[in-house]
Please model this.
Amino acid sequence: MAEPPPVVNASPIILLHRIDALALLRTAGDALVVPEAVMSELSAKEDGAARAAVSASWLSVVAAPPPSPTLQAFDLGAGETAVLAWAEAHSGTVAILDDRAARDAASELGVGVRGTIGLVLLAKQRGQIRSARSILEDLQRSGMYLARQLVEDALKLVGE
Model:
């Protein structure tokens, strides 16, 4: 049986769109899903990320199931909750998100997680990009906060 498609939250879409690298999301899978709540967040930003997501044939907008009581107890934002509700309902789904509280919740719920940095590193390992450093620097310039030590540790993992 095929693995379910990864489910993606707003921040990776926004950040990768800002540096014209939205296609890096495909490193996680050939097709990805975006909950309606996430699309609402993207649409509210008015920075073009929602339009880019909608026009990507490999991203599908889905209705997320109601969150479990355990998930509700984490009191996350609507997008993070929808992403994790989808992942909980589709066993084996990887959640693509950056928010620390959501990542902690995913860990407690047994949901696999990958963040934007993880996508960049995976793309480098697969030879899809030449330089993880340049992408991470672009992400930082576009507004993503990355601690210097985190970047250096990540880059060591891919030999940069």
Summary: The mean pLDDT is 93.
